[in-house]
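FIELD: query
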Amino acid sequence: MNSGDMRIVEFDTHKASDELYNLFFELTEKLGEEKRPGETPPPRTLLRRMMTTKIPEVKQYWWLILKKEVENEKAIGIARIGFSTKKDPAYQENKHNADIRLDVDKDHRKKGIGSKALKVLIEKAKEDKHVDTLLVDVNLDSGHQFCKKLGGEVALEAAENRLHMEAVNWEMIEKWKSEGDKIAEKEGVTIHSFTDCPEEILKEYVNIYTETINQQPLGEIELEMRVTHESRRMQEEQIKQQGLKWYSKITKEKDGTISGLTEFLQIPEMPERIMQLLTGVKQEYRGRGLGKWLKADMLLFIRDNFPDTKYIQTDNAISNAPMISINDRMGYKLNIAQTMYKFDLEEIGNKMNAA
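FIELD: result
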């Protein structure tokens, strides 16, 4: 799409030139400074490696909005859409959703650029006959205004929270660990750690992972997450290709049954940051402090093994009261509020055509 000195071009993350990638990085770093002022951006080599890792469960399409300035062009916007593929174990439940990203440089907002890019995303979504819903994460006021103007429905309120290591009450964390150890010893519960999931527990592990991840509140989003033997092995390989380290801890009951889990990603190229992922306990094993014990054990593991860590980052739905309660006591603080909006594809398409 061309419009005067502006054009929207496809950005194939697997084939794009260094020149196009540099334009993309310049804009993402400017957007990052707006969202997280003063924070060092992720290394470009890391981001490019992540964007070129093939993820069979998802098909993604990207565009850059370019504006000519004197002799050169600069990126002033980014658009992306992602769909589930049949490699997604929950494809039948998720195929109606498409998640989108739409960012415009703050110096070029309120000029109709976002609307032009949204039309491109809508047309791409319509190519998939199963899609009827668009989902988009928003954390800037400009994004909220844009979504509200177009009649977006708030589907989920969430937050990116951070725990700064210098603020941790280590006496309390060690007490949690000690209390958990005593209860566990009495009841015969043990903690086990791994990176790649051992084959002998993989079938049971993916079942509890699927159960606990779907216990998370998702507001008005119709979405199911499912992990299988095949998808877990694919995810482990993807993480390695991206250069990340994936650590997991589980609790086993006296009879060997897996009752709880917690996990995190460590980024060697960003040693100051740890990404806390899922923590969950099976329904029938709740009320015994397993989640708190696992979180304490994991935090002490991070302290002892990754001394360069400055903070741990995690995302939680606002309505996930049990996990927020534990995180609050650990010292997690709000970093960025996040809202997911959803749009009916037909309605938003008609609205954009009439505009």
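FIELD: remark
The first strand starts at residue 2 and ends at 3.
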